[in-house]
Design a protein that fits this description.
The chain is 25% helix and 31% strand. By secondary structure, the protein is of the alpha/beta class. The radius of gyration is 19 Å and the shape is globular. It starts with a strand and ends with a helix.
Length: 236
Amino acid sequence: MQAVILAGGKGTRLKPFTTCIPKPLIPIGDLPILEVVLRQLKYYGFNDIIMSVNHQAELLMAFFGNGKKLGLNITYCIEDMPLGTAGSLSIIENLQDNFIVMNGDVLTTINFSDLYNFHTIHNNDTTISVYNKEVNIDLGVLKVDTNNTFLDYIEKPTYHYIVSMGIYVLSKKIIDYIPKNIRFDMPDLMLRLKEENKKILCYSGSYYWLDIGRVDDYNEAVSIFEQRRSEFLFDE
């Protein structure tokens, strides 16, 4: 099975860590986050890996090479310009009929095989992995009407949102809906597919997920990985 790794971003929210190295190579514990992802994909049967790279591409390519040391077949799609989280798919050759697309900087315990099977069994055009994200507000939240009249006071509330995990399964036929040579992100693609009445289902489960987008997230990821390493790596 095949997976496309989106690894071309600059990781600006993680500076200064990403000043000298690409975000997917930032270590959690003794491994780069992307190596954790790749070892998980291999465990679940995804041996054909395509990395979409742009910023500091030479460092990623030098580190992972052809994937032989991980028992994978890794090839690269080099973007001449940043094309966004969906745009690079339009220039990748040899895509399979169904394939995973994901960010290279997420820490998760999702079962990639179950996700892929869910997509194919339901004959989806697109499957979006989702997570129930808890957001704590450490302030008093006020409700007011249009006249600024006080209605309610909620002290330090907790909200729950269904969020995208940055992990998808796509059918190859949806590539026709991605414009070429312009920046085009996954939200743009999902909305376009919805307009075209394509079948889009969301996949959820009892797994852990964290997007390593900010310094606080990175510190949390390091702590969680060190405490629960066996939940993320099954090949050790």
